[in-house]
Amino acid sequence: MKIKAKKSLGQNFLLDKNIIKKIVEVVDITADSAVLEIGAGTGNLTEYILKKNPKKIFVIEKDEKLVSKLKDRFNKKVDIINDDILKVSENLIYPDKLIVYGNLPYNISTQILSKWITNDNQNIWYKNYILMFQKEVAERILAVTNSKNYGRLSILSNWKLEVKKVIDVNASCFYPKPKIESTVLKFTPKKCFPILKNPKNLEIITRVFFNQRRKKIKKPLNQLFKTPDKIIEKLKLDTNWRPQNLSPQVYYQLAKEYENLSN
């Protein structure tokens, strides 16, 4: 009997065993590995992860009915956390770094990623993220300067993370079948990245710029800085540019300059 998916939780269960196998094998799971799975659903991905015999596997599942089924299916082989991922402190789950898998609910996938990026600062609690997104969202994450999909999500994602596309996943691989295609991405923490005192400042900068993405950059600079001409000169900016013309590195520099104002 198929489990009825809850639309309110953005549930689409991945059924295709070939795709599941490819996702699990994106990184090496060894006897020393600790794994965290977000939104385990019916446990199809969980089952393949268990075959790799990791040291520890945690799953976070919000749906109480699914939690009950996961307990029946895996007994005590899996540590199940019945909670909302947006409310969990992931760095407190396990002392060692985690390999993170997630077929993320489409309706909150960008919230989850933004939470992880802005909350961890220098406290890296994970080895990798292997995450599934709506294809359109994945394209925004992967987008480069001067492309139409480039924006806030590209800049935020590439701040601390190396991002690589793994595979596109057809809608027919899921139950219920979604109306859109999906993409799996692999995220690896960078060893070096620009340090910000408060990552929320990067969100502020990018929001102000990309709320007016067709406007020239002079307008958002005037909004954010009392002396925008000094910033323009210091960062060698061209006021005829538009937000999509600025590289991620420029936005990280702008966030630092913005932080300096409050000192």
Task: Report on this structure.
- The protein has 263 residues and is an alpha/beta fold.
- The protein has 2 domains: 7-189, Rossmann fold; 200-261, Helicase, Ruva Protein, domain 3, CATH 1.10.8.
- The protein is 36% helix and 19% strand.
- It contains 10 helices and 9 strands.
- The strands form 2 sheets. It has a 7-stranded mixed sheet with strand order 4-3-2-5-6-9-7. It has a two-stranded antiparallel ribbon with strand order 1-8.
- α7 crosses α10.
- The longest helix has 14 residues, at 248-261.
- The protein is elongated, with a radius of gyration of 20 Å.
- The model is unreliable at 5-10 (pLDDT under 50).
Number of domains: 2
Q: For this structure, what is the CATH homologous superfamily of the largest domain?
A: Vaccinia Virus protein VP39
- Estimate the global geometry from the Cα principal axes: elongated
Radius of gyration: 20 Å
Distance between the termini: 61 Å
Give the H and E element order: EHEHEHEEHEHHEEEHHHH
Q: Briefly, what CATH class of the largest domain? A: Alpha Beta
As a percent range, the share of strand residues is: 15-25%
What's the architecture of the largest domain in CATH terms?
Answer: 3-Layer(aba) Sandwich
